[in-house]
Amino acid sequence: MPHYDVVIVGAGAAGMMAAIQAGQRGRSVLVVDHGQYAGEKIRISGGGRCNFTNVHATTERGRDRFLSANPRFALSALSRYTPEMFIAMVREHGISFHEKTLGQLFCDGPATQINTMLLGEMRKAGVTLVLETGVESVAKAESGFALELTTSSITCESLIVATGGKSIPKMGATGLGYQLAEQFGLRLVETRPGLVPLTFETGALERLKALAGIAADAIVSHGKTAFEEALLFTHRGLSGPAILQISSYWREGDSIAVDLLPHQDAGEVLRQARQATPKLQLQTVLAGMLPKKLAQLLGDELDLSGMVGDFSDKKLALVEARLKGWTLKPVGSEGYRTAEVTLGGVDTRDLDAKTMAARDVPGLYFVGEVVDVTGWLGGYNFQWAWASGYAAGQAA
Ligand SMILES: Cc1cc2nc3c(=O)[nH]c(=O)nc-3n(C[C@H](O)[C@H](O)[C@H](O)COP(=O)(O)OP(=O)(O)OC[C@H]3O[C@@H](n4cnc5c(N)ncnc54)[C@H](O)[C@@H]3O)c2cc1C
């Protein structure tokens, strides 16, 4: 029966990085994936340009940008494999990139360049990759593990589980990582979709439908957490970076608040308009501040027909409140079908933060999205995949 020092299940971002590191250390490494290709999520990531890291991922600011039942867990791995280290590999491979916004680094060309780079490094490190091969069972062997694959039986000393989360099942996501965690006695933190568009009940949707396709810069908040980015109205509800970010914090039954005029004193603008152009329709004043259809919707909802000069302080204050704190109550999200990530996963209390090893199962490791660590939108999730994969690849 073939034996490997390290078997890695999942040829995604975290699995490939772990394979490179273990292979470079001279370990015999096999990577198994049931998909037809390695790195499918890398290929479609960042709109096809792969937002492969964020320069703030390990700075003081970056430290708050990972969600987990224990947000400190990720810091050890993140501080030992920094964005600069991944950027150095990208440069070495001659891949050009740019900072789009907020520290987010994207390839100038197709995201497949990142896959080509990782596959090339795997080959150089002597890693064996088998695709279109599933895992039927994993059992503890006398020393290490015995795996029944759909094509053969193998044994290994160390097993790294890099099967990702539940998002986008049609791209190969399965619950295998969670099943293996449970099988070996690790706890799980409840999973839910993250970085996902939010949906609304039919009545609200009917009203918002007219706005589909409109984007606006906004501050979207949930409790004390707020994101200032673009907001996009869709046929199903709300999307855009600001909504995807807040979706990771939102829970069923909660409301979100939208500031449609970030950094503007809306009350002052309205009062000035009343003084300077009292005969102008308030609706027209609003259309100067917001996309026209959005101004129209707010005007209709708040019954704002008439000249701005005729509006009392009290009524203008109502308009201001709506512009600066529009409260919306989503009924749900688009779910794993479109979620970019899965929140929750393997409980970090059962993992060693330095190596990603299961505390009570020698030789078993969990890396990447399957672990209860989820980053913000903007390259943080790949940085976690690289850093956790690196940590396990150095130890397994
Ligand atoms: C549309 C989209 C865009 C994204 N864009 C970005 C971005 O630009 N920047 C960013 O930082 N993050 C982005 N993300 C998130 C990022 O892709 C993930 O966080 C990251 O891929 C997680 O890496 P992973 O290796 O843990 O899991 P994955 O990349 O999901 O890899 C898991 C692998 O395991 C394999 N697998 C699963 N089950 C089994 C099984 N039973 N048997 C064998 N193999 C199995 C899968 O086929 C897959 O190849 C995006 C996600 C999506 C969905």
Question: Can you offer a commentary on this structure?
Answer:
It is built from 13 helices and 21 strands. With 396 residues, it is of the alpha+beta class. It has two domains: 3-193 and 342-395, FAD/NAD(P)-binding domain (3-Layer(bba) Sandwich), CATH 3.50.50.60; 197-333, Translation factors (Elongation Factor Tu (Ef-tu), domain 3), CATH 2.40.30. Strands 1, 2, 7, 8, 9, 10 and 20 form a seven-stranded mixed sheet that branches. The protein has a seven-stranded antiparallel sheet with strand order 17-16-13-14-15-12-18. A three-stranded antiparallel sheet has the order 3-6-5. Helix 1 (13-24) runs parallel beside helix 13 (380-395), helix 3 (73-80) crosses helix 13 and helix 9 (266-276) packs across helix 12. It is elongated and about 85 Å long. The model has no long low-confidence stretch (mean pLDDT 96). The structure holds flavin-adenine dinucleotide (FAD).
List keywords for this structure.
396 residues, 33% helix, FAD/NAD(P)-binding domain, binds flavin-adenine dinucleotide, seven-stranded antiparallel beta sheet
